[in-house]
Amino acid sequence: MSSTAGQVIKCRAAVSWEAGKPLTIEEVEVAPPQAMEVRIKILFTSLCHTDVYFWEAKGQKPMFPRIFGHEAAGIVESVGEGVTDLAPGDHVLPVFTGECKECAHCLSSDSNMCSLLRINTDRGVMLADGQSRFSINGQPIYHFLGTSTFSEYTVVHSGCVAKINPLAPLDKVCILSCGFCTGFGATVNVAKPPKGSAVAIFGLGAVGLSAAEGARVSGASRIIGVDINPNRFEEAKNFGVNEFVNPKDYDRPVQEVIAEMTNGGVDRSVECTGNIDAMISAFECVHDGWGVAVLVGVPHKDAVFKTHPVNFLNERTLKGTFYGHYKPRTDLPGVVEKYLNKEIELEKFITHEVSFSDINKAFDYMLQGASLRCIIRMVD
Predict the structure, then answer these.
(1) Catalytic residue, candidates 66, 70, 157, 287
(2) Which of 55, 70, 158, 200 could disulfide-pair with 266, CB 3.0 to 4.6 Å?
(3) Strands, DSSP E only, in 60-132?
């Protein structure tokens, strides 16, 4: 397996040349890993809404040409200098955030926000030397979230790579590297709903349904799904959601509707839309005295959160979370084991599968609202 180590690899990648235009399959050159980097053969990747958001480039800095993709699973092909905990042949999940294990955040049990390797959407190059590892005829192609998994081979900082049990099916556990852990962890690690409690989930996409799954596993008795798209309600029942509220059906704030339904408010709420009004509703719909609201969705850069301070004085708690409060290298292997032990289900999140050459279909499914997760098989 190490015969290609130290050499440039030529392989296929789906390159995005300009905002909102279909990706094209190109032959790219992938440079060998530098110090503290690994080169990974990607076997399965899936499409997350964040890829679409940056591909559309409506609310942030456009950076093209770029190789998107950050939810994936593969096998280490070669490692750079200084990498001791990974070796060729290891089964891994590359992750959009990292864990250097040395900074104040990594040394704290209260944080997963690594100072060195936390998410940076504006960086299109590697940390080691500020260069891209991808090129076409000498032209550099930008990286995305340090992962760029829409390529048969990619180079990732070793601190952003979780080594997992080789028995785990990579076409299923690939979704753990972003969406599932973000929602599920927001509930089980941050909201921590008591058994028998009432939980409101705002937004019933893949992340919201993962949050609902967390509530179900935690033993919540009422799981209220809040979404303006009623087409999502039927599917959400598979994830434990047992009541539904469409804010469009009411001429008053949805937090008032939920407070009325639940005799004063839910015990926990998890917001997974990024819509600022949903965030405010999620906070204001929790019960005074003990209610906890957790924000997961990423808001527009100019958004402002407004609520009356008395909502805090009445002992409601507002929390934010990043990647479900999981440390990628330390915690992800254990989440994979939970799946292998049938403590969590992943299959029901996977609604579509396409071959790599049909990657644009995955974008179509997501834009139509037809898919939760579409798995892209790299080997056609």
Answers:
(1) 70
(2) 200
(3) 71-79, 91-94
